[in-house]
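Sample entry was shown:
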Amino acid sequence: MLYRKFGKTNEMVSILGFGCMRLPIIEGDVSKIDEEKAKNLIRKAIDEGVNYIDTAFPYHGTGMERGGESEPFIGRVLKDGYREKVKLATKLPSWLINTREDMDKYLNLQLERLDTDHIDFYLVHALEKKTWDKLKKLGIDDFLDCAIKDGRIKYAGFSFHDKLEVFKEIVDYYDWSFCLIQYNYLDEYNQAGIEGLRYAAGKGLGVVVMEPLRGGRLVNSIPDEAQKIFKKANPDRTFVEWALKWIYNHPEVSVVLSGMNDPLQVEENIKIASTSEPNSLSEEELDVMNKVKEIFKSKIKVNCTACEYCMPCPVGINIPRNFTYYNEYHMFVNKENEQQLKARYFSLKEEQRSNKCVKCGKCETHCPQGIAIREELEKVTATFL
């Protein structure tokens, strides 16, 4: 196992972290963790050198409002001396915070659920602009200062899902030790992206990466022409290895989280994390990755950057989300996942779907990309309905 310095903390962390959001379950019920199987997986990973364990209040629950089963389970797994072997990370459920007192209430509850007297890496969960503005007013900085001072948490960080400018604002607001961002070879310029990664690292933050495989799509939904490029370049290298090595190649990345739920996944990820130094990919390998990225890009139907200048729609359509689901359908669709990708469209509220467009054209007057939004929304509708 390879280790990297975790930003300005000087802690050394395994470059592979165990994400505990998708543990093995029983009978398809996310709230019923297969405890024996999951315990064996996590302890095997720790025995092989993984020392970063990541969970959160809602993981393995049936709703964001209620605590899930992941935290209590992790508390049990880390018995028998395993707690001392790892850096434990969990997250403040930011969507449940309405007062300054709520912050202490949930942190104290999480300490009980995890059966520990401190949390090594505590994150403010899923920050975006609206939630961030609310937490600032409620005193999130005072809460974090107090929790660090009294020893309930060792280091403060945040996880993020929004635009680059919001990311930079959050980084600059508080003396964070680390952050958690979505990053993979298709999200190089989405959300915080490469610029945010470098910005945070430049400020001394350790950077943890989530969704390195885009929810498995960079393994199970790769276009045939991209598969051929990978196999021609190195027939023995798996798609997982290509994707993870591309991230590990960035010296700014401290930890990559993987939601492993099978012994073979643990073995493969540990093997990759034992051979992936920063700046180790050759020019030829980077060229392979660029060719694959271009194939994915060629399948994008609408050049929407999700800037949201088209919003709000007068009738309530979520224009950027419709285009996201439309683009991802064409990028990843195959016989096995077509219905799953179509279901994402129907996760939108009825009034948010493309077929509700009244063709007023207001959105097009604000689009900096010059997208013929009304015409493209018709295509979205034709694809999904």
Notes: The CA atoms of residues 113 and 321 lie 35 Å apart. The longest helix spans residues 283-298. The two ends are 48 Å apart (CA to CA).
